[in-house]
Amino acid sequence: MGFDLFSFMFIIFSWASLLSMKAEAEAEGIKSARLLDLLIRDYTVKSLDRDLRTGIVHTVTLPANFSGIKVDTVRFRCGSLHRYGAQVKEFHLGSGVIVQPCAERVMVVRQNLGYNWSSIYYANYDLSGYQLVSPILGLLAYNADSDLSYGSPFELGILAREKPIKIDFSNITKASNKTGNWPLCASFEGNGKVTLKKQVSPNVCVATKHGHFGLVMESPPPSLPVRKKISRWKLVVGSSVGAALGAFLLGLLLVAMFVKVKKKARMEELVRRAYEEEALQVSMVGHVRARTTPTI
């Protein structure tokens, strides 16, 4: 019995480890924005409760390797969504929205990729000259007519012909409008195209269909080293100190030159005296030698 329990626990642990390794491998190997959408879709489907009521926002729990990504999903009847619209986090879908093709129910998925995972869009889209100042927000729709636990649902289209979809970035952007520079609304198409538009109001963008959206601003040019402005009193003090130091050094130089000249003159005087004394001694010796002994 103990052996069977141990074997069962070992199998459970191994299965959990394999799932964790699989999730880690998936997270580390993601380079495509499209692949990330598919993985989020699969985890969303797995987390759904069969008895989930329509119109209720459900928070999706992702593996730890997808930390930073926030996903919410909600199921609607296509007719009700068309008549009344809906609010899904930052996305406001007005009345008249159309889901194509949709027989009865649709699963709407809202993504917030966070700043970390949003960097994937730099590799998948041409954003040269611009930088993201908000996380990427995604609004996608999938078929929810059949049992979602069997197979993967196919993607549907969301069209807002009468009233555009509003996307409010107010609570997630790091852009400051105090400088007077307003971010642009970026819409990331499935074909790799980026469309930039002006905001309709502060931190609010509009769209006519599903997709991924973000706020961007022009990248600042490389800054040159700025020379600090020196105050006048610092300049005066610095000039005075410099002048005093220069005068001090000049004085030391003059003193050194004077001492050197004085020392040289003294040496010359000593040499001259030495020569005179030596000449005097030679003269005296010569004089003594030159004298003759007087004859007595």
Care to describe what's here?
The protein is α+β, with helices and mostly antiparallel strands. It has 2 domains: 29-218, Chondroitinase Ac, Chain A, domain 3 (Sandwich), CATH 2.60.220; 227-282. Helix content is 40%, strand content 23%. The strands form 2 sheets. Strands 1, 2, 5, 6, 7, 8, 9, 11, 12 and 14 form a 10-stranded antiparallel β-sheet that branches. A 4-stranded antiparallel β-sheet has the order 3-4-10-13, with no helix packed on it. A hairpin with a 2-residue loop joins strand 3 (86-88) and strand 4 (91-93). It is rod-shaped, with a radius of gyration of 45 Å. Keywords: Membrane, Signal, Transmembrane, Transmembrane helix. Residues 1-27 form the signal peptide. It holds the Pfam family DUF1191. The chain crosses the membrane at residues 235-259.
